[in-house]
Amino acid sequence: MQLYGYFRSGNTRKVRLCLAELGVHHELVVVDLAAREQRSADYLRLNPNGVVPTLVDGELVLWESSAILLYLVEKYPHAQLLPQALDERARVYKWLVWQPATFNPPRQRLAAELAKPEAARDAPAIAALRATVDRNLEILAEALGGNDYLLGRYTLADLVMLPHLAALRDAGLALPGTVHRYVDRLAARPAWQAIQNWPD
Predict the structure, then answer these.
(1) CB within 8 A of 58, min separation 6: which ones?
(2) What are 71-117's pLDDT values in tens digits?
(3) Where on the phi/psi map is residue 52: left (φ > 0), alpha (ψ -120 to 50), or beta?
(4) Per DSSP, what are the bridge partners of residue 3?
(5) Pick from 183, 97, 171, 96: which is nearest to 137 by CA?
(6) Do the beta carbons of residue 159 and residue 150 sit within 8 Å?
(7) How far apart are CA 95 and CA 7, in angstroms?
(8) Under a CB-based contact definition with an 8 Å cutoff, are residues 114 and 121 in contact?
(9) What is the largest CA-CA distance in the chain?
(10) How far is CA 46 from the centre of its chain?
(11) Cα separation of 107 and 164, whole Å?
(12) Whose CA is closest to 160, among 111, 100, 115?
């Protein structure tokens, strides 16, 4: 099994985290986005979208991080990252879709604005994006309530949130107390610690 990805990619980190949680041996193939290797002819033959990650498992070539995650947790059910009960599975699917569709786009746009030189930043856009990100964090905090995890135990729903929440925290953005403690709890997991190093 091979995983093609890049260390700055949150979607690559999600899949690496899942593989670590499952204890699945794989080869990590670096696709250097900074060098635009994702646009090379060889890579586009694997993933015509020209993005990371891509998973190759025998004859199967799979892109879209959510599809990869679902494939992995169904192929390796021992970690019980995907519940058996239909209603619980549906709740996992909700977060699996919410993270890339609703939570991440404003987070990414905010990060891009804040990465610009101060004189080039769009202050109204930053204010609007911060408000959206803050509201999404409130939604997450409300969903957690007093629980340690979104479904009461660690599942794929929590796994997909961690890389993107960690990116927010690392950027110095304030997180609600509930979410801050949630990120600390998730980041303490051995699987997350194991993927922090990236091959040279």
Answers:
(1) 1
(2) 999 999 999 999 999 999 999 999 999 999 999 999 999 989 988 99
(3) beta
(4) 28, 55
(5) 183
(6) no
(7) 23
(8) yes
(9) 52
(10) 21
(11) 8
(12) 100
Q: What is the DSSP annotation of 142-160?
A: HHHTT-SSTTSS--HHHHH
Q: Indicate the helix (H) or strand (E) that contains 29.
A: strand 27-30
Whole-number Cα distances in Å, 152 to 90, 92, 95, 146, 148: 14, 12, 14, 9, 6
Calpha distance 81→26 (Å, rounded): 19
Residue for token pair 């900074």: 34
Cα separation, 114 vs 106, whole angstroms: 12
Tokens coding 59: 């004859």
Residue that has been written with the tokens 């990414």 in this structure:
108
Q: Considering only CA atoms, which of 55, 67, 68 is closest in space to residue 28?
A: 55
Dump pLDDT digits (tens) for 39-48: 999 999 999 9
Tokens read off for 185: 């709890």
> Is-cis flag, bond preceding 199, omega within 30?
no
Task: State the pTM of this model.
Answer: 0.92
Dist. CA 95–CA 133, nearest whole Å: 16
Q: Are 82 and 155 in contact (CB under 8 A)?
A: yes
